[in-house]
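re: that chain from earlier
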Amino acid sequence: LRGETPKSFFGDYYYAYGHDNAISAVAERLAEGAAVDSLVWEYLNESEPTWTSRTRIIERSPPYGIPPVVVHPDLAPELKDRLRQVFLDLHKDERAQKALHTLRIDHFEQEDDSAYESVREMFRSLEQASQQGS
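^ sequence. v structure.
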């Protein structure tokens, strides 16, 4: 399917503006399929199985680095360091543990930038396919 665009491949498509919205659109037969984050699907499968029970996973992508926590590049370095430490220690706080559990997050880790190389490779592959299709 490389070289295809949503417009050329699908009869119709739209943005659901959220993975949960996309799952419910498929469940309600407003859409025939959707690409969604597995973390969102798994969360809904536990919390709202009425939606996920009316969907079927047909393909799983290779693993990708989880979305990062980001800050503005002009933020003061000491504030960046403080925020980083707050996230890294959040699982140690009793009050935060409940929220983390609800979000299905065990703890935050500082990842090496190489964790996102698979995403970069995907974009390079799509760029190459796009150039070959032009």
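Helices lie at 6-9, 19-27, 38-47, 49-52, 77-89, 94-102, 117-133.
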